[in-house]
Each structure stands twice: as structure tokens, then as C-alpha cells.
Amino acid sequence: MTQLLNKVAIITGAASGFGAEMARAYVREGAKVVIADINIDGARAVAAELGSNATAIACDVTSAAHVNATVKHCIDTFGIPDIVINNAGTTHKNQPMLNVDEATFDRMYAINVKSIYHMTFAVVPLMRERNKTEPGKGGVIINIGSVAGIRPRPGLTWYNSSKGAVNLLSKSMAVELAPDNIRVNVICPVMGATGLLESFMGVPDTPENRARFIATIPLGRMCESTDVANVAVFLATDASHFLTGMEVPVDGGRVI
Fold first, then answer.
1. Strands 8-12 and 83-86, sheet pairing
2. Which sequence spans correspond to the domains of the chain?
3. Is 109 a catalytic residue?
């Protein structure tokens, strides 16, 4: 499969979960991928699994210096990125909003929202310059938002708001960057069986508790990593060249 043949991608938070599966899908489709994660051991393991078309780098997405170093590593290893997926994210435990302390709030916004600010400053000038020398070849930015930013529920108020910011800023970026042929879309998954599951639920991860949450999803299951990866592949291919500013729920009908 070669839908992304010779494309260069950076994926943050790619050591596990949705990010790792997107990396696998991209390499299968012919892309070269930088796996950026604060968990460098996990990132290296995924890169080793994927072979020479993947490379790992330690990246704390809350740090502009780390993000800039990641982009430089990408350029030095594979070239200017064609695709960037801002996937790194975190949450607070499901609980009343007044129980969430300021440090947790600040950390969550730094990871979920400010990381996109850092990455935008690092890659957009490169994509703009390339579009000048190779008209029509700007780039693709995919942000990972959440259905929580579309249809919020109690207990995750501050997390919901951070993903609402991601969803909206993606649309605004799409409008502003369209003249540069940089497409920006946001994928909004429903809850999946990732490392954050128990925090999202706010209760122990038991079959009974999972069943209670799954009952709210019309298609009757949680989001799987491959569901997100499949959409991320499509949004980076030439087949989606006229799609930008889209808020794509990958949610089995949850937001209906």
C-alpha cells in the first residue's frame, strides 16, 4: 500500500495508543515517520518495530525547545515534514470541576493546547516556504481533538474545554493557512481503551463499568486505535485534497 509514499510525518505521543497505531498505518502506506514522545523507550520500541522508515526522539510537547529539536531531527533524518499529527494529550481524572487543582489544569492545557502552538510555530514557516517554491505543496496538519469538545459531559469539564479549544483552533488554522495550501483537520475520537481510560471513566476499569459507557455509543463499542489511524491516513492523502477545517467525530455515533 502506497497512499503516503515518500511522505514525511511527525506524530507526537506516538509511543502508544492512537499515536503508535497511526505511525504503523503511515509506515504501511509508505511514509517516513518521526515518533515523538516523552516516553523515549516506548518511542524507540515502536520505531524498532517499524524499521528504517521510522525514527524516535524524546519530546516534551510543552517545551518549544523540544518541539523545535523534533522538527530539526525530522529534517535531518527524512526532510521537511509533509504531515504533522498533534496527538499528544492528557486528561484529569473524572471528578467535580472544583476538585481539579491548578497545577493539573495548567499541565493539561500545556500538553493538549499549547503543544499545538509550539508545533505550529515550528512547522508552518517550513510548509509556507515550500509552497512558494513548489506551488500546491504546502502540508497537512492533523490535530487530535475529542468528542468531549463537541458534546461535553460532567466530570471532565476542564478536559472538555481543552479539547473544545483544539477543535476550534483547528478550524481557525484551516481558514488562515488555506492560502498557503496547508490543510488542517481535527479528528475527534470517542473514549478508547488507552492508558487514559480509567481517568476518563473516573471509576475502576471493570467489564461492568465499560459496559455502562459503551451503552452510550450507538455502534456498541469503544473507539479502537485502528479507527483513528484509518481516518488519519485518509486525511493526509491526495484523496482528501479538498478537505480542510473538518471536525471528524470517530465515535460510533456518540455525538448524534
1. parallel
2. 8-194+224-249
3. no
Q: What is the pLDDT of residues 224-236, one digit of tens each?
A: 999 999 999 999 9
- The percent helix, strand, coil of the chain (3-state, each to 5) is 50, 15, 35
Cβ count within 10 A of residue 7: 22
CA distance 9 to 30: 11
Maximum pairwise Cα distance, the chain: 57
Contacts of 85 (CB under 8 A, 6+ apart): 9, 10, 11, 12, 14, 19, 22, 141, 142, 143, 144, 232
| Grid cell locating 40 | 523515549
pLDDT at position 199: 61
Q: 3-class DSSP state for residue 251? A: coil
- The mean per-residue pLDDT over the stretch 209-213 comes to 77
Taking Cα atoms as reference points, which of 248, 232, 250 lies closest to residue 83? 232
- pTM of the entire predicted model: 0.94
Alpha-carbon Rg for the chain in angstroms: 17
**Active-site hit among 26, 109, 117, 159:** 159
Cell numbers at residue 95, please?
A: 471528578
CA-to-CA distance for 246 and 214, rounded, in angstroms? 25
CA-nearest of 67, 18, 27 to 188 is 18
What's the topology of domain 8-194+224-249? Answer: Rossmann fold (3.40.50)
Give yes or no for residue 187 having a pLDDT over 60: yes
